[in-house]
Design goal:
Elements lengths: L4 H4 L2 H18 L14 H15 L10 H14 L2 E6 L12 E9 L2 E6 L4 E5 L3 E6 L1
Antiparallel strand pairs: 1-2, 1-5, 2-3, 3-4
Amino acid sequence: MEWTAWMVKPMNEREEEAEEWLRQVKKTYIDRGMMKWSGFYLSDHTAQMEAEDQKQRQIFAAKEEMSLEQIGEVLEEAFSKGKLVSLQMAELNEEHVYEADLTGKVLSFLENRIYLQEQNGTIQVALIEQIRHAEMI
């Protein structure tokens, strides 16, 4: 191995040169932030993320508020006929708009809760008092 002038310099001088080099790099290096990681995402994943962003930005209009009796009738009919139901919940999100309707098949009732199976198979539980509007699809 050949010794270079850099290797035989005292440690302090080498540290100073290294620190100077690092300062020069920091001056010229431009961090691209999250852009540098975008190549690691699969196209399916980015498409899913974009769809979720669009869904979150979507504004859903307030539907007519129904009484608990009216909601109960719609839910009972949907349950007995095996039909799909769409529920708008009364709760607003952080942007003060309504979330997307829960849509699915009524599986059962238990006290003040309704069990709804969405089309993708997941089961949602909703309190009947928190339902603003219900309609059969």
